[in-house]
Amino acid sequence: MTDAVDAxxxxxxxxxxxxxxxxxxxxxERKFAARMQSRIGPYRVGPHGLLQPIADALKxxxxxxxxxxxxxxxxxxxxxxxxxxxxxxxFATIPFAPGLGxxxxxxxxxxxxxxxxxxxxxxxxxxxxxxxxxxxxxAMRAVNQIISYDLPFIFTALVPVLLxxxxxxxxxxxxxxxxxxxxxxxxxxxxxAAFIITTLxxxxxVPFDILEAESELVAGFRVExxxxxxxxxxxxxxxxxxxTSFLGALLFLGAWAGPGPAWLGPVWFLLKxxxxxxxxxxxxxxxxxxxxxxxxxxxxxxxxxxxxxxxMATALVVxxxxxxxx
Amino acid sequence: xxxxxxxxxLAALVVGSAVGxxxxxxxxxxxxxxxxxxxxxxxxxLMMHAEFLAAAQVIVYAGAIAVLFVFAIMVLIPGKEETxxxxxxxxxxxxxxxxGFLALxxxxxxxxxxxxxxxxxxxxxxxxxxxxxLLFTDYLFPxxxxxxxxxxxxxxxxxLTKRKAS
Lengths: 326, 166
Hints:
The complex is a heterodimer of chains A (about 325) and B (about 170). Chain A is an all-alpha fold and about 325 residues long. In chain A, α1 packs across α11, α2 packs antiparallel against α10 and α5 runs antiparallel to α6. Helices cover about 75% and strands about 0% of the residues of chain B. At the A-B interface, α4, α5 and α6 of A face α2 and α3 of B.
């Protein structure tokens, strides 16, 4: 029974921390974007705008909840929850320090990839259930994109798996004690670059944000949502983004490795994850949106063959280094 | 005790969503029930300590194939007002005897001794190492044949779609 209680408490702590981080990541992004454009960003609520996310959340809580008359009510109402669950669940296998995590599964990374791909179900339910043509077009584009980018995303995430020789996330982290995988000659840099590109696509961020292209689709699949349901969708999206940033920091940047005492590990990990997040945000505020057919062409004609080649090259390197007969 | 309760909840979920898939007239609702069903089966694999199989089930079936189904339904299947009444309506009655036959078959297989439960799930290797080793030793030939089959299907699809529309 104590196991169940432990698991419950651990899950509760991680979820609370995740919600807190995710809420403040929105402020981080707004501040960062503002600085990139020579603005100040949110400044009025609290010192340096530090209470802005809380004000946003309170505002969304008090807004009217609107359900379109012709919406598919059950699907429409379930969609934000179905969308949020994968975003929260991906944090279950991430070890935040040696032995500090909810569940260090032996298939950790597969669990992460499987759960994070399920986000599309909630997204599709939102787009279809709204019974709005913009939302539906957005959902169709999202399905298109996820089919195209899931494979290269998985392949690039498998490169560190091959180098570490384990699917367990904590093993991958400890395997980088000597050399972070991003510094692994050639393979590391290529894989990290491919990972960032596919991450952008998997998170539907600019330049791959065709599914919420404001100029064409208003706000895409979430156009009909208001109030708390909108907040849940936003929370799910940013949770997914933060989770993938943590995965990137874990796979390529040595997770909790860093100078100082061991208890600083989680802090280093958080800083690295935020670094990955800011890298993605930087791209978002620097580039323009790519056309639908160009997005699909990039995936199928460039990223997929390249990531496959990279995976094979990595396998070759691993075999050559470990010697024959293994 | 806890795992028994979890099993019954999951079993009810899997059977219920399968029934929902068949009963719902709306094809999109059916596809969503299918996602629930495949996810429930993955959870059942997880309960049998076949973690790798569960993850593969979610990635391949619940993730990719169910999403493709949804996509195909949205793009290819027109509404009833466009197709008119079902031209194969008479064939629906065939479902009753065929379904009965299938149920009989499943019952016979379950009663036979092919699937014994002599080995408890925990002793059967379900980890990724065990699956990988088996795939590349004992089951190498079926594995390669399957991959060849998929490659053939892939090339076939490309040949069919590349054909010039005359």
